[in-house]
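Journal club prep — side note

Before the paper discussion, L.F. wants everyone to see what a predicted structure for a comparable chain looks like in token form. Sequence:
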Amino acid sequence: MKLSIIIPMYNEQESLDSLFVELSDLFGQEAETEIIFINDGSSDNTLNILESKIKNYPTWSIINLYRNYGKSVALQAGFDNSKGEIIATMDADLQDNPKEIHRLIEELEQGFDVVSGWKKNRKDPLEKKIASKIFNFFVRVFSGLKIHDSNCGIKVFKREVTEMLTLYGGRHRYIPLLAHQKKFLISEVVVDHREREFGISKYGVKRYSDGFFDFLTILFLGKYMDRPLHFFGSLGFVSVLLGVGIESYVLYLKYILFDSFQQHIALIILGAILIIVGLQLFTFGLMGELIVNKKYKDRNYIKEIIE
């Protein structure tokens, strides 16, 4: 069964020698295994090193992106250009142990569609450990997906899972959740997580706020993508109902109690605004997210593919 391993990277020149030694020892003689390195707009010597390293491996290739788009787009480029029936992902910073891929595949073959690594003994600073626990707690509570480490870099998938993904922004953090929403079977396996040898994490504090909003978006789209009016229609109905109720009350005051309209201008304006807002919710509530979703699906990020 053909295996594709996708490795996104951004400015990882220091780790490439060790990474290639490990990958060569494990997969260098496997003709059924392709490895796709995604150069996500690196500004160091990453691309040149990759080009020199893959020359002896006919099934290894590089996807070179125009600029640094982020991990989600890099993974999507790899998914779209992979050929394997089983697809694996891992990070290039040497913290993921590529030996774990075979263990994850063994779990996948037990009938699962996605197997995610679990960095149970995580070798990261305390700040990242705490943030990860909070992040995964919210994912479990609000999504019903009962895994411990949704954002672990090392995962394996059946091809049909990756074909339904549309990754952009920070959605790579929620790949198991996206698969869970489509009723794919998810499992996880405790994996070896290693100390960072070179450099620092490429993700700053901003990833927390971005991840939170991505989480809300995914929860919303997962529930209402196919029936958006179930959400916006309900809000619109309530808004219109309140507006009509207020205007009816003003009419009651005018024609039953003989009050002047001028005494209730504020109520009249409020009722009209609620009716207008309700109608707008019916018409374009979800258009922004739908447009973004399609835009990222159709956009071409790839500058070249080097084989």
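L.F.'s comment for the group: The longest helix spans residues 229-255. Keep this in mind when we get to the figures.
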